[in-house]
Amino acid sequence: MNRRKRSVLVAFALLGAAYAFSLVYVFHLGRPAPAPVAGRPPVVIRFVHWQLESGMREAFDLIARRYMELHPEVRVEQFAVPGNVYPQWLRTQLAGDDVPDLVCFNSTDPSQVSQLPRYFQAITRWINEPNPYNAGTPLAGVPWRLTFIDGGRNRATYIDQYRNYYAVGLSAHTMQMFYNRDLLVAITGRDEPPKDFQSWIELGKMVRAYRPGLIHIAGAHDNTIWLMPTLVNSALSRWLLEYDHELRFAASGFDFYGAMLEGRWDLRSPPLQAALRIMQAFGREMSPGFLQLNRDSAMRAFLRGEALSIPNGTWDYPTMRAQATFRIGAFALPMPGPEDREFGGYALLPLPSVGGITTAMPFYLTRQSRHPEVAIDFLRYVTSMDGNRRFSRASHWMPSVEGVEIEPEMQPFKQNNTGFTTTDLQNGPIVMNGPGADYTQLFETNLHVLYAPNGGVEAYTRALEGQLRETVVSDLRKQIHVQSENLRRRDAALAAQHFLDAAEQAEAVRQQSGLHLSEIQVYLMEETLARTTGSP
To answer: Which of 37, 105, 176, 279 could be 330's S-S partner, Cβ–Cβ 3.0 to 4.6 Å?
Structure first.
């Protein structure tokens, strides 16, 4: 190894050591010791998140200070960890038994679902009780879960396969197509976004003709992976409901992929070919090479005026507003209607806002929490009418609680709940993010084929179809294994609860009924695999 290489390695080692030391200092040594209250040390609860957008840490500090004013005996500490190191940091803390009481966690990733019972506590016993901080408000006496705009039930908060609530969402968001209003007027002569899918495609042609190098959409790998699956599901919602065997207005992912194994659909089915054409059309409007770009690159291109629009969540609006030198507007990307012969015919129209009827930013109670009742009480305050109003106004994020007014600046992004939607169940048939990690990787790692000059829908179909069936089978078998292991672990825990006090015994009985439903689902999955593959 030559001297230059050794110097580079030493430099990286020193940089890593400095970074590790700074994390230890910030999260441990740099925090002053809690001051005693009435001669006793205060109860300390800690929460952690990765939301570093403009104003978020200040909003959390404000709500923590207000809670401590109401409860002088409690000290609330905020940890804000950058998103690019958050997963690794959290795994380290969980393994080291030093995790905060409340954790913002991505449970919608199928690979993370199996970790929930191991690291986090179900909160069903609390969420069915009224929120005491809503006393004297229109939500007084209402069960806590029913005070949320989505009834407290979405893929991140209610885990269907465990039949339990695990989190509450502090905010709500919609996915929008944000656009440069001044640039749109210069291009089209009016500040009016397109009303249908074909008009949106025509706008892209006008953008490219207006100025060489001007981009219709500032694209990146990140916002593609966020938005594309939702667009595809919306475009296929009418067709997906053909597999709603439980009549819940939501097709179970197990039923959907079981139907694929039975030969009832494949990638060449007309609805899926239409969905792939929509994906291709969407990608063609983005920055060249967008799959290699990250979210920050797309944001900078939009703010510099190099692109007319950017697909993003309302969580980024405060940051964009603070940095943009132009007026910002927003609209929901319209879906192809039944009259659209190239792209349409499989959507239930009209659609509500994308992501508009679910809460976001879920916080989970860790099993290692030394003060679970206090941590839950803090969450109750943050999601009360008073606490959520304060948090929403300080963060410029939309509230998650019914009846909390949206500030005037955010009114244009208010959720539109009028229209058809299919419930976004855990393990639901998200066409791009299917029954497991290998399926998702198969779709994502081949996306470049869809957008390559010598690629397209046919080439992408060929790249996927040879591996699709075996990937679905493999992912379903992994799910059966994970769920069976979780069922065994929960059986032992629930049996132990029967020997505790009356409240714990009642909770064990309630959870046992949900456990039976989960066990039946595992048996049905095993039967489908055995019947369609010839092996258990």
So the answer is: 176
Q: Is the full-model pTM beyond 0.85?
A: no
Question: Looking at the structure, do residues 333 and 215 belong to the same domain, yes or no?
Answer: yes
Q: Please state, in angstroms and rounded to a whole number, the distance separating the CA atoms of residues 246 and 202.
A: 41
What distances in angstroms separate CA 312 from CA 142, 196, 219, 228, 339, one per listed residue? 34, 19, 10, 12, 28
- Give the separation between CA 128 and CA 113, rounded to whole angstroms: 22
Q: How far is C-alpha 23 from the chain's CA centre?
A: 26
- The closest of 354, 351, 359, 315 to 146, measured between CA atoms, is 359
**Predicted pLDDT at 109:** 60
**Per-residue pLDDT tens digits for 208-234:** 999 999 999 999 988 777 777 777 888
CA distance 394 to 361: 16
Question: 510 is in which domain, residue-wise?
Answer: 472-533
Model confidence over 179-194: pLDDT tens digits?
999 999 999 999 999 9
Assess whether 137 and 46 both reside in one domain: yes
Let me know: does 60 contact 104? Beta carbons within 8 Å: no
425 and 155 Cβ atoms separated by less than 8 Å? yes
| Residue bearing tokens 């106004």 | 393
Residues 150 and 279 in one domain: no
Instruction: Identify the pLDDT of residue 4.
Output: 55
Confidence of residue 18 (pLDDT cuts 50, 70, 90): very low
Summary count for the chain: helices (H), strands (E): 20, 12
Cβ-contact 52, 10 below 8 angstroms: no
**Nearest-angstrom CA–CA distance, 332 and 351:** 10
Closest CA to 168 of 146, 149, 152: 152
99 shares its domain with 182: no
- Distance between CA 90 and CA 337 in Å, rounded? 44
